[in-house]
Amino acid sequence: MMKTHRLSQVAGALVVALGLSTAAFADETSSGVRGVITTPQGQPAAGTKIVITHLPSGTKKTVTTNSLGGFQAKGLRVGGPYKVTIDSDEYQDQEITDLFLQLGETERLNAQLEADQVEKIVVTASAAAFTSSAGSSYFGEEAIQNAASLTRDVKDVIRANPLVSILPGSSAPITIAGSNPRFNSITVDGISQNDDFGLNDGGYPTQRSPLPFDALDQVTVDTVPFDAKVSGFSGGLVNAVLKSGTNEFTGGFFYERLSDGLGGIGDVRDNGRDIEVEIDEKTYGAHLGGAIIEDKLFFFAAYEFFEAPQTLEWGAAGSGAANETDATLAEVQQITDIARSVYGLTDEQIGSPTGSPLEEDEKWVAKIDWNINDFHRAAFTYQFNEGNRTRNLTDRDSELRLSSQWYNVSETLNNYSVKLYSDWTDSFSTEISYTNKDVENRQNSFGQSADVTIDNLPSGGRIAFGTDRFRQANTLDTETEILKVDAEYLFDFHSVEFGVEYQELSIANVFVPGSLGVLEFDSIEDFRNRRASSYEYSNGTGNNPAAASAIFQRETLSLYIQDTWDYSDELTLTFGLRYERLGSDDKPPFNQNSLNRTGIDNTENLDGLDIVLPRFGFKYEVNEDVTIKGGVGRYTGGQPNVWVSNAYSENGVTSGFFSADDVVVPANAITNILPEASAAIENAQSNGNVSLTDPNFKLPNDWRYRLAVDSLIDIPVLGEDVQWTNEFLYIDRKDTAFWRDASLQESDILGRTADGGRILYRDDDNRYDLLLTNADDGGRSKIFATSLSKYYDNGVSWNFSYTNQDITEANPGTSSTARSNYRFSPAVNRNVAADHLGTGRFEIEHRFVFNFGYKTEFFEGYETNFNVFFERRSGQPVSYVLNRNRSLFRDTLSPGFDNGNFLPYIPTAGDANVVYDGVTEAEVLATIDAAGLSSYAGGYAPKNSVTTPWVNTLDLSFRQEIPGILDGHKGEIYFVFDNFLNFIDSSQGKVEDSDFGTLRLYDTNIDDQGRYVITGVRDDSFSLDLDQSSWKIKVGVKYKF
Fold it and tell me: How many helices (H) and strands (E) does the chain have?
């Protein structure tokens, strides 16, 4: 006779504890089970056989308990259902059924056996759709498929985590725990999905998600994993595993449409006017999985294709665009006419302020699982993605970029991984893996001519056309290979893990800004008269961009050891230690002139740089309702490799630089290099710009501390056993990256401004030596999060969280080049590291999140799923900065930008440190008051002193199954309603942003007495993110079997 119970009802004869150990997500691709089996008298049940069966595939794993009754089984497939059989020769056999395993987790299973006279007991477990707390979150297949995801991106799933926010921008960058989006780590089936080089702020090596959405099985998010296997991030860790085939053939296909004709797109009301949004997106795909050999060999494959014309969010003044520049359509026409008549340019070379470039994305994955025998299992995964997106569209009011300035980013991704899971004994198992990732990045400009900017237009703006200076020679190829060997040994109540990882990154990058020339004109009349205020040209030796290629390899060797100690049934302790060492045989070419200017050797390659990363974690189950967990650890990684690559590509030896001011250029100067510029490169004597790495550079790292309390509480109306989690996270950043101009010497200092706050330098000679080094104080994060969640038997589930962040940082490292990282970190004195310290650029001070789900069957046998995601969060920090005339601040190395990101002095009434010219004191003080900066009068406005407006998001998803054509088949109709608040009220649900996180306050110069001469005030405002601000309804159909 056999009895079946729900897990929560089992007591007395069988004591089964099913609890999650400390998460070990890393780049895990499997799960595990471990526990202790005891006799009726509470003694170790040594020699008891544990049979673990994955029912969908028939995969079995058998282990035997050790002398203390302990056992472990690793390398198991994620998901389930599993059946666990406890097979004893002396006592009654017992079973746990419907057990589901989470990615990267080792399920804890403790059982006390009973005499064989007792009837066999079966315990039924269950699967959670998702669990979401700040420190770690898990999302199963059901949560993934039912998420209100407009873009079929895993980001729309993990935003349910209290610490994950999607920021404005076409690439939808995610910040985790207030970190730079580039610093996160994303892995799928053990394959890194990161942009290893660091060009994309979206985090992926591609423009869109590189994975078919229907291929995802489980996803986890972690911010403080106390596992020594974990590394490679300074933000958060996102890990996913793809579906695998089973003995049953399953599959499906879908089609989605987002357009005015099918679904719906709403207008946005902004500043009293309605803005029309035009979008036409199509997505379709399919997936199929099954057995090649039953119980032995399985396959799964998925495909997805997307296409849509891109929407311009900026246009010329008077165009009716969502955001309008200072420059007007009349000025565009005037400049176009001159470009044709004076310079002989074609319409294609000049470009237009309008257009709808097409974006396409194609991706597929294939996976093979092989049960070699009872002791060995292998898995192979292949991933392909090819896509494009047009970049450098106008994104600020001060500059209108014509279409010849745009460029098409195309990326091709080829990944594969091979894994072998082996059980050598009941106590010793290994996992050996090899992964290879190959990425090809091309950035092709719409125009093929010099970069041309006409400044000081009558409207106050400027217009740019021609090939963007940074795209004139820009290609990238990277290959990443990783070999890992992980082992685990069960000894008494200790599970000891150890391993080695070797990673080799090969980079081939051609990056020569200005290889087609860069011209600036101070007015339309100067453009007509061919009088350029500046002309710049840079190229590789021999006037060949390929000569300046950065080709190098970097290796990382990692070793780790870790002990997970079950000190008691209630307390688990984890002690770990990780060691990482960098290596490289490739060095940047030596530049003697740079050494003479700076006293620093520019050939540093970080070879031999190493770091030790200790970890400690604990989990204490106070009682059935309360669990305390936490720990401390040191982490490193995630910083873009392009920062190091700068030293190879911009070394001043393999490339040369030419510049001239106030020069009359020939009529063919936009399509041909000036002869004197070409000759200067031929005769260059290692005198170009240099980016170099500090020989004393240390790996940026941080110490993370986490304390969390999980409780089950009863709340009137809401019910019993509501999960309540409170967490505190503290991050102390050490040795963060910082850039300074190493060529600046004491002799370059002229003095300080009259107030004594800002250093003044002599004008430079358009050359720099930018040093990548470390800041003494990198800032810190204090994060508190509280969350409540509950699942009901009637299909209702909900989750609510609140998060508070208090973050300070130095240089945020938001750019890919040393030049831009140096320029775009707001500070009073750019070369002083301490001046960069302030509120973090990605701090979200307050964030409220509510998720609601309802699962039922309105029609018997056909599921209905309704899901809601609501978010209300603080805006992103923004800095007010000075505008123009920055030569005395040592910024003439960056012509063509109004904004040098220098924090402004805030004058008092009658301030002796300020002179007004063309603007009154009253006008300036009124502008300062309107900006909310009056409290800083007599000093400098701090970094990130204001924020963009609060963001409110409400997204809905509805899915209804319908009968299929054949038995066992089903169809599905679904709708995703994005930004429902904007649908209710077109002035709501808006998302606003700012150019490089800054707003210009006033125009200034410095007189001979060091006083600020304020010549005008700015009326900068936040720009509207049109895509995230409009409501949309996506309609989809799916057929599945």
Answer: 12, 66
pLDDT at 10: 33
The conformation of residue 826, written as its DSSP 8-state character, comes to: -
Query: What proportions of the chain, in percent to the nearest 5, are helix, strand and coil?
Result: 10, 50, 40
* Bridge partners, 288 (sequence order): 251, 301
Question: pLDDT by residue (tens digit) across 779-832?
Answer: 999 999 999 999 999 999 999 999 999 999 999 999 888 988 998 899 999 899
Selection from 796, 805, 612, 773 nearest residue 695 by Cα? 773
Contacts made by residues 619-623, CB under 8 angstroms, sequence distance 24+:
619/21, 619/22, 619/571, 619/572, 620/570, 620/571, 620/572, 621/19, 621/569, 621/570, 621/571, 622/570
Listed by start position, the domains of the chain span 2-127, 136-879, 880-1040
CB atoms inside a 10 Å sphere around CB 551: 14
Structure tokens, 390: 């047009």
At 821, give phi and psi (nearest 5°): -65, -35
Strand 358-371 vs strand 376-391: parallel, antiparallel, or unpaired?
A: antiparallel
Q: What residue type is 369 in one-letter code? A: D
Convert the pLDDT of each residue in 167-182 to its tens digit: 988 788 999 999 999 9
CATH class of the region 2-127: mainly beta
Structure token pair of residue 921 = 């004191």
CA angle 794–795–799, rounded 5-degree value: 120
d(CA 972, CA 72): 41
By the 8 A CB rule, do 1022 and 992 touch?
Answer: yes
Backbone angles phi, psi at 950, to 5 degrees: -60, 150
> Residue 596 is which amino acid?
N
Integer angstrom CA distances of residue 349 from 392, 407, 670: 16, 13, 10
Q: Are strands 737-741 and 79-87 parallel, antiparallel or unpaired?
A: unpaired
* Residue with more model confidence, 128 or 901: 901
- Indicate the range of 280-294, 680-694, 982-996 predicted with least confidence: 680-694
Confidence band, pLDDT 50/70/90 cuts, at residue 17? very low
pTM of the predicted protein model: 0.90
Q: Which residue has the higher pLDDT, 116 or 978?
A: 978
- Pair of tokens at residue 879: 């800095």
Computed over every residue of the chain, the mean pLDDT equals 90
8 Å CB contact between 741 and 675: no
User: Residue 263's pLDDT band (boundaries 50, 70, 90)?
Assistant: low
How many angstroms separate the CA atoms of 982 and 1029, rounded? 7
Q: Identify which of 602, 701, 712, 611 has the alpha carbon closest to the alpha carbon of residue 652.
A: 602
Retrieve residue 667's tokens. Answer: 């009529």
What tokens were used for 846? 């307050």
Asked, colleague to colleague, whether 2-127 and 136-879 share their fold, the answer is: no
Report the CATH architecture of 136-879: Beta Barrel (2.40)
CA atoms of 557 and 559, how far apart (whole Å) = 7
| Strands (E) located in 398-473 | 399-401, 407-423, 428-445, 451-454, 462-465
Burial 755-780 (b: 16+ CB within 10 A, else e): beebbbbeebebbbbbbbbbbebbbb
Residues 184 and 172: their CA atoms lie apart, in Å, by 14
Q: How far is CA 365 from the centre of its chain?
A: 22
* Burial class of residue 261 in the structure, from the number of CB atoms within 10 Å of its CB (0-12 exposed, 13-18 middle, 19+ buried): exposed
Beta-ladder partners of 771: 692, 740
Contact 914, 920 (CB under 8 A): no
Q: Which pLDDT band holds residue 129 (cuts at 50, 70, 90)? A: low
Residue 73 has pLDDT above 50, yes or no: yes
Closest to 953 measured CA to CA, from 1019, 1027, 1022? 1027
Q: What does 344-366 look like in DSSP terms, one character per residue?
A: ---HHHH--S----EEEEEEEEE
